[in-house]
Design brief:
heterotrimer; A mainly alpha (284); B alpha+beta (350); C mainly alpha (289); A: 284 residues; mainly alpha; MetI-like fold; 13 helices; globular; C: 289 residues; 0% strand; flat
């Protein structure tokens, strides 16, 4: 039994933190949207127009960037999940050495994204250790192009390296909330390891799986720094194209259109997630 | 020390009435227990006395002082929480001295009083330990020490023993009782454990669904339950309905599916033709002997060996009854057993 | 010896095998992780120690000669010292501001069942969720309009924005973790609001506060997008310097030095946090449940 324990003053106390965030985030979103329609333009005349939208939609290069970023988002989120889920399952039960293993795994989370990018670049570059090792072992005849490759594998590897601990953290939380009794009950009723995995662990940790995939997608889709140092020469990621459009070509209005596309995709994915989560968890 | 008076207390949470017109008087130095199942309003009543909840209706008095608008910090009650609520970042000494500091007691006297209660609670030598370094029983003692050191007007206990194991619980409840008698502090104690309530209280208040079912000393509550709820909640009881078909001075003849029984009704004797509800304890059913007034023929459904006795589940013409027999007797399902019951064993219920 | 082994029943041997399988798997994962995490870091360390006069190239496995020359060069001839100063001045300011702004909000989110709590909690996460470059690019327009671009105070505000989600979340969680009984007990023993804040709330949120400070601090040190758009070229921080070394003038040895400078304090802080989170006296106060 709980008594209503708040008063109007509590809403006032929310203002410093919530207000600060709202002011900055809202103003940046509003500027992005208005400028994509030519309003509040800083460089030239302010006038309502949908020309910028038309231009972007007819621009094959922009489309390429969107598709590339979508690809990075999907591959990075799937990749981290594939790496993190087995680890999370393995670390669910404590055992000798697992604490140490847990600490080791966590290290990349505390390495800044740009540093992570650099560390991996070192390994996968044309004369990096991986190529040299493969050459020395005679597996390949000439070095593989893994950095700035056309497909973007370099970026995916960096995203997986950097973000596996983050996804592991979310998944471990989900898995930890599954009571041992439930698993014992399933075993008692005749479920083997395979059934326990597919009928107990995966369904019950689905909210965690979904949220981690969404957050990873958003991160990789909107990424600027990693793609700009390790991504292909063409196409650039959508965030990189947006920034170049704005600062190199000084076409802020067109950049704003790209900005709106990034935000809308992010919102759409988040919305899809919440629908999916409702569907899976069956809440509401 | 104070006399505690509750007058028509009502407490609602959103649309649920947690406490429904509760009135109660606790005399100076008296130990009163609020007993009932979970959700009966006992804890809410206690927290209202402490001031954590404001009653929606009714008044709370300590002696003649109206307390409704006094904040918890100024009520001079001391509460022992179920979770002990020890301050985890303070050592034993600081925990106990906290209330004294709040009351601006001079440092010298603080030292003296804390040392005193440490001695009293057999905690001497543990002053510097943190709560996490203590066993459950020790934490419980620190919580108790922290409460009594402030010399409160009223001691409040919110199921303080429920986190202890069974043996320790029995031991500590005796200690609480002795300490309370020695210090003579008015106490209000909440529990759902009937044994604990019977063992520790001067008076017991049985609560159910927000209202008081019965107030009385432990014997009265056990031997003369006033309502079917009290009869059913405290100990085991056979609760039956019957019709009064005859009466003399102080006795009535009850008609039941399995026959008739004479019951002593005293001054409250019901009238002929009334339907009455009454109860008796399993141990009131004893082996029938020639010449006994009441006779109940039963069939054994289950006989369960309990160590010190045999617990019998009986059937008497479709009426289920419980009885206790000595552990020397042997029973098996299907046996026919004839019981009698003393006319004074009946309790008429509201 | 052989006989003894034979005498151990099959089911016991199977159980033992299963247990040792877990141990072997743990060892396997540890080895994989040491390579997975350790090798990239080790390579960066090696690269940072390559002697400029003896370049490290194919096919030598290790650099011919190690020296600190690169470190000396980076400190002497690049902006790293200024960037270090900017970074380590910005971070404490952002931490302090995010603490001051976040504390009241975290208190309400942690302890009050207000209407719309979920909504406010989502808003708190926005700076983490919103695509960084979009926010950076178009917030810079607002900052320019108010004269906050290329301005230290503007950078403090930007870093505070990114640090706030961590600060508020961690503080709110530690406020939430204080059992109501503890606060009631203090009140019951006569504590007023001031005492409750000073003797109960502040000491009990300390682990969360320290974790919040560390997360806010590392967030600020790592912040790239906003600093890059709003701060450069007037203000360089370590990430923007590293970006320039990784971009058009890619010099691996220099980048190695800067990457290590940026990484080492973070890893040290990681182990402090680990230690902090182990120290949970909150649950101990609930008795041996």
């Amino acid at each position: 039994m709980k008594e209503k324990n708040y008063s109007p003053i509590d809403y006032v106390l929310l203002i410093p933190g919530i207000g600060f965030i709202v002011v900055f985030i809202a103003s940046s979103i509003i500027i992005t949207i208005t400028q994509s329609f030519g309003l509040l333009s800083v460089t030239g005349k302010s006038q309502f127009t949908i020309e910028n939208w038309k231009a972007i939609f007819h621009d094959k290069e922009s489309l390429d960037s969107v598709l590339f970023s979508l690809k990075m988002g999907v591959l990075s989120s799937l990749g981290t999940l594939i790496f993190a889920f087995p680890l999370a399952l393995f670390l669910r039960k404590s055992g000798p050495g697992k604490r140490f293993l847990g600490s080791l795994i966590k290290i990349p989370q505390f390495i800044p994204a740009l540093v992570a990018a650099f560390l991996i670049i070192n390994l996968i570059s044309y004369h990096g250790i991986i190529n040299e090792a493969l050459l020395a072992l005679g597996i390949i005849k000439e070095p593989l192009r893994m950095l700035n490759d056309k497909f973007g594998w370099g970026v995916v590897v960096i995203q997986i390296w950097k973000n596996t601990p983050f996804v592991l953290l979310i998944l471990s939380g989900s898995l930890a909330s599954i009571h041992d009794d439930i698993i014992d009950a399933a075993r008692n009723l005749g479920a083997g390891s395979f059934s326990v995995l597919f009928r107990i662990f995966i369904p019950l940790s689905m909210p965690g799986i979904l949220i981690s995939m969404i957050l990873m997608f958003i991160k990789a889709f909107g990424d600027f720094a990693i793609t700009s140092v390790a991504g292909p020469i063409y196409p650039p990621s959508i965030a990189l194209r947006m920034r170049n459009t704005a600062t190199l070509f000084q076409e802020w209005d067109k950049a704003a259109v790209l900005g709106v596309i990034i935000i809308l995709t992010t919102l759409l994915i988040t919305w899809l997630y919440s629908r999916l989560a409702e569907f899976v968890v069956g809440e509401k | 020390m104070s006399r505690l008076v509750l007058k028509n207390i009502v407490k609602k949470f959103e649309n649920v009435i947690a406490v429904d017109h509760v009135s109660l008087e606790v005399e100076e130095g008296e130990f009163v227990t609020l007993l009932g199942p979970s959700g009966c309003g006992k804890t809410t009543t206690l927290r209202t006395v402490a001031g954590f909840y404001q009653p929606d209706e009714g008044e709370i008095y300590f002696n003649d002082r109206l307390m409704n608008n006094i904040p918890p910090a100024k009520r001079n009650t001391a509460m022992c929480f179920q979770s002990y609520a020890l301050f985890p970042h303070m050592n034993v000494w600081d925990n106990i001295a906290f209330g004294l500091k709040m009351r601006k007691v001079p440092t010298e006297e603080q030292k003296k009083r804390v040392a005193e209660v440490l001695q009293m609670m057999s905690l001497a030598g543990m002053e510097k330990r943190m709560p996490s370094q203590l066993s459950g029983g020790q934490q419980q003692r620190v919580a108790l020490a922290r409460a009594i050191v402030t010399q409160p007007d009223i001691l409040l206990f919110d199921e303080p023993l429920s986190n202890l194991d069974a043996k320790l619980r029995v031991q500590v409840r005796v200690e609480i009782k002795e300490m309370q008698k020695r210090l003579g502090i008015t106490s209000l104690y909440v529990t759902h454990d009937q044994d604990e309530a019977l063992a520790i209280s001067d008076r017991i208040v049985v609560m159910n669904q927000g209202h008081i079912e019965q107030v009385g000393d432990p014997e009265t509550i056990y031997l003369h339950p006033a309502t079917s709820f009290v009869a059913g909640f405290i100990g085991l009881a056979n609760i039956l309905n019957g019709k009064v078909i005859a009466r003399d001075e102080q006795r009535v003849l009850l008609e039941l599916p399995f026959g008739t029984l004479w019951a002593f009704g005293g001054n409250l004797c019901p009238n002929v033709g009334d339907m009455v509800k009454f109860s008796f304890r399993p141990e009131n059913l004893v082996q029938y002997r020639e010449g006994n007034m009441n006779k109940i023929v039963t069939t054994v459904v289950h006989a369960i060996f309990m160590g010190n006795a045999v617990d019998l589940f009986l059937d008497a013409q479709g009426v289920r009854l419980r009885a206790r027999a000595q552990n020397t007797e042997k029973f098996k399902s299907g046996d026919t057993v004839v019981f009698t019951i003393d006319e004074k064993a009946f309790q008429f219920l509201e | 010896m052989q006989e003894k082994i034979q005498k151990i029943p099959l089911y016991i041997r199977q159980a033992r095998r299963k247990q040792s399988l877990t141990t072997i798997l743990t060892a396997f994962f540890i080895v994989v992780q040491i390579i997975w995490v350790g090798l990239p870091i080790f390579m960066a360390v090696l690269w940072s120690l390559v002697d400029p006069d003896h370049p490290w190239s194919f096919p030598s496995i290790l650099p011919e000669k190690l020296s600190l020359a690169q470190w000396v060069y980076v400190f002497k001839y690049t902006n790293i010292v200024r960037a270090l100063k900017t970074s380590y001045m910005l971070a404490p300011c952002a931490v302090a501001l995010s603490f001051l702004l976040g504390l009241p909000t975290a208190y309400v989110l942690g302890r009050k069942q207000i209407r719309g709590k979920k909504f406010f909690e989502t808003i708190v996460l926005l700076p983490m969720i919103m695509p960084g470059m979009v926010v950076a690019l178009f917030l810079s327009r607002v900052f320019t309009a108010f004269g906050l671009a290329q301005n230290f105070f503007g950078l403090v505000l930007a870093h505070t924005l990114m640090a706030l989600p961590y600060m508020i979340r961690l503080l709110a969680t530690s406020f939430e973790a204080i059992p109501q009984d503890i606060i009631d007990a203090a009140e019951n023993l006569g504590a007023n609001t001031f005492v409750k804040i000073k003797d109960i709330f502040l000491p009990m949120i300390r682990p969360g506060l320290l974790a919040g400070i560390i997360f806010a601090f590392t967030t600020s040190i790592e912040e790239f997008n906003l600093t890059f758009v709003i701060g450069t070229p007037t203000f360089e921080t370590i990430p923007t310097i590293l970006y320039s070394f990784l971009g058009y003038n890619f010099i691996r040895t220099n980048a190695s030095v800067v990457a290590l400078i940026m990484m080492i304090p973070n890893i040290i802080l990681l182990f402090i946090v680990e230690d902090l989170l182990k120290f949970d006296y909150l649950s101990a106060s609930l008795g041996k449940l």
